[in-house]
Design goal:
Elements: H1 2-23, H2 31-53, H3 63-87, H4 92-103, H5 111-119, H6 123-148, H7 155-166, H8 169-183, H9 189-199, H10 202-214, H11 223-251, H12 256-266, H13 273-281, H14 285-312
Length: 313
């Protein structure tokens, strides 16, 4: 158990430090945004490029693993949509964001450090991050735009989405690293050293920024809103890894390592993007903020339990 805690505890201690700093207002309100921008545009692309360039090709091209995760995500997304739209009677765009909250995994800020420390390679979480950014995010943003346009699909949105995704520095850094891996190119030493200095700061800075964002004051929710948030949290932290694990084991017969990575990645908490998108479209903001917060707290226990289970067996 101590070996498991040595993996999860540093991640959440850094988040907790950011949370404490935010609660005691030790940083200005714009600090979280500045840290996040540094991670997004500078540190994480450098880290992902080097990580993917040095990863064996089989770590980033396991189709059965990707399909297992995708099927699990879409099943949990459908359940989340049904709960939000049919039971809680949310509007279309709110239901989309609720669906995202129940199924979209935090593959970057928490997923990368956990997977690297647990499995030694970032490949299993990087391919999931790319899948979510390239496919899931595209579908989510298009659906939200459609509902906000009262059912009339905006062609301008469809035109802009590919450009937005292509210009995403995290996607760009990852894809370039994958190209180096597939082509078996060596990274020049000067690039390796320079990107390494920047990239090594990415994960701790990202975790600290996430902790800052979780420490901001939150508007109290109604009883109905809290019930929805807790339902989505259970779906994301518990149901999602269970369904993905069953698919990976019984349908695709994944190896022990890949099955473990699949379950752990699926058990990651709700991604910060859920809150970011809610702010962007000015809807479901309070719920998404609480969902990210409580899902991250719960994941400390669920992820520790899963990693202990895998190491004990």
């Amino acid at each position: 158990m101590l070996s498991v805690l040595s993996i999860t505890t540093p991640v959440f201690l850094i988040m907790f430090l950011g949370y404490v700093c935010a609660r005691f207002k030790m940083f200005p309100p714009e600090a979280q945004k500045i840290f996040s921008l540094y991670v997004f545009y500078c540190a994480m692309p450098c880290y992902l490029f080097l990580a993917m360039a040095k990863s064996p090709a089989n770590m980033i091209t396991n189709i059965s693993y990707i399909i297992s995760f995708a099927l699990g995500l879409f099943i949990v997304a459908a359940i989340s949509w049904f709960i939000a739209s049919r039971i809680f009677k949310l509007r279309g765009e709110q239901s989309i964001l609720a669906m995202m909250g129940g199924s979209y995994t935090n593959s970057a800020f928490i997923g990368i450090p956990i997977i690297v420390m647990a499995f030694g390679e970032p490949g299993p979480v990087i391919v999931i991050a790319l899948f979510q950014i390239l496919i899931v995010t595209t579908l989510i943003l298009t659906a939200i735009e459609t509902f906000q346009k009262h059912g009339s699909l905006s062609l301008n949105t469809l035109y802009q989405l590919p450009k937005t995704i292509i210009l995403n520095p995290i996607v760009g850094g990852s894809l370039l690293g994958i190209l180096f891996s597939l082509m078996k190119w060596n990274v020049p030493q000067i690039i390796n050293n320079s990107f390494g200095l920047l990239g090594n700061a990415g994960i701790p800075t990202a975790l600290f920024a996430l902790g800052l964002s979780l420490g901001v004051d939150r508007k109290p929710l109604s009883k109905e809103q809290r019930t929805l948030v807790y339902s989505l949290m259970i779906l994301k932290n518990i149901v999602h890894p269970l369904i993905a694990g069953l698919i990976g084991y019984y349908i695709f017969n994944l190896s022990e390592m890949w099955l473990g990575a699949l379950i752990v990645v699926s058990a990651m908490p709700t991604a910060m993007n859920n809150f970011i998108f809610s702010q962007r479209y000015n809807t479901f903001v309070s719920e998404s903020s609480q969902l990210v917060f409580f899902s991250s707290i719960l994941s400390l226990f669920t992820l520790s339990g899963l990693l202990w289970w895998f190491t004990a067996n």
